[in-house]
Specification:
Blueprint lengths: L3 H6 L8 E7 L5 H14 L4 E5 L4 H10 L4 H6 L3 E5 L18 H12 L4 E5 L1 H8 L1 H18 L2 E7 L5 H11 E9 L2 E8 L10 E6 L2 E5 L1
Parallel strand pairs: 1-5, 1-6, 2-3, 2-4, 4-5
Antiparallel strand pairs: 6-7, 7-8, 8-9
Helix pairs in contact: 5-7, 6-7, 7-8
Length: 219
C-alpha cells in the first residue's frame, strides 16, 4: 500500500492482484487515504489511475498539494492519470473523459483507462450507486474485480458508509475480497480490517489521524 502502518496491519500489504474496499463515514479520511496510496505507488514507479467521481481532478490535486504531495511531477512522467468522471460537471463540457450520468458511457470510460494502469483508485462507488442504483453499482464492482485479475493490478474502491442499503455494503465487501472500515466516534476516527483474502491481517481497532503529512495510523 505504501503506507507503513497500514502495510503492517495488512501483513506486508495487499497481494497482487487485488482490490481493497474502503468503507467509511463522511469525513473519516477515505479520499486522503486514496490520494496517499496513489502518490506512494507513483513514487515507486507504478502507473496509477485515479478515477475522479465525487470530486474534480482540480480538487484532488489541490488537496494533495496541501499535504505536501505534488502529483504534477508524476503526471508529467505518466505515472499518475486523473480521469475526470466528476458527477458535478457540465455535460456539455467536452474536455471531460466520460459522462458519469450515462451508465454505459461511464463503464466504457473506466474500462478504457483501467487497462492502462497498474494501480488504481475509484473515488467513489457511492455516487455511482446514488445516480444509477445499487444493482448497476454492484455490476460495476464485479467488472472492476474482473479487470483487476486481467491487469494484475492493485487498488482501492472508496464508498461512503451508511449511504447505501446494508445488503449492498455487505455485497461489495464480499465482491472485492478485502475491506477496511473507517468509523467516526465523536472527534476520533478508527480503522479496522473487516476482511482480507490470501493474506492475514491484524485484528482490532486502530486510531487514525490526518496531519500535514497525510494519514497516520496509531498501532
Amino acid at each position: 500500500m505504501g503506507i507503513q502502518e497500514l502495510d503492517e496491519i495488512l501483513n506486508g500489504g495487499l497481494p497482487i492482484p487485488s482490490a481493497l474496499l474502503i468503507l467509511g463515514d463522511v469525513g473519516s479520511g477515505k479520499s486522503v487515504l486514496c490520494q496517499q496510496f496513489v502518490y506512494a505507488q507513483a513514487k515507486d514507479g507504478f502507473n496509477c489511475t485515479y478515477f475522479c467521481i465525487d470530486h474534480s481532478p482540480y480538487d484532488i490535486r489541490t488537496n494533495m498539494e496541501s499535504l505536501g504531495w505534488n502529483p504534477k511531477d508524476f503526471e508529467d512522467k505518466g505515472l499518475i492519470k486523473f480521469v475526470d468522471l466528476f458527477v458535478g460537471r457540465e455535460e456539455s463540457d467536452e474536455k471531460y473523459q466520460g459522462n458519469p450520468r450515462d451508465y454505459n458511457e461511464l463503464v466504457s470510460a473506466i474500462k478504457r483507462y483501467f487497462i492502462q494502469n497498474q494501480r488504481f483508485v475509484v473515488d467513489s462507488i457511492s455516487s455511482i450507486a446514488f445516480l444509477h442504483g445499487e444493482t448497476k453499482a454492484y455490476d460495476l464492482i464485479q467488472r472492476i474485480h474482473g479487470w483487476v485479475l486481467k491487469t494484475k493490478g492493485v487498488g482501492i474502491v472508496n464508498a461512503v458508509k451508511g449511504m447505501h442499503s446494508q445488503s449492498f455494503e455487505v455485497a461489495i465487501q464480499q465482491a472485492l475480497g478485502n475491506a477496511i472500515i473507517l468509523e467516526r466516534e465523536v472527534e476520533s476516527v478508527y480503522l479496522h480490517v473487516a476482511k482480507t483474502t490470501r493474506t492475514p491481517h491484524q485484528k482490532g481497532k486502530f486510531g487514525l489521524e490526518i496531519d500535514e503529512k497525510g494519514i497516520r495510523i496509531l498501532i
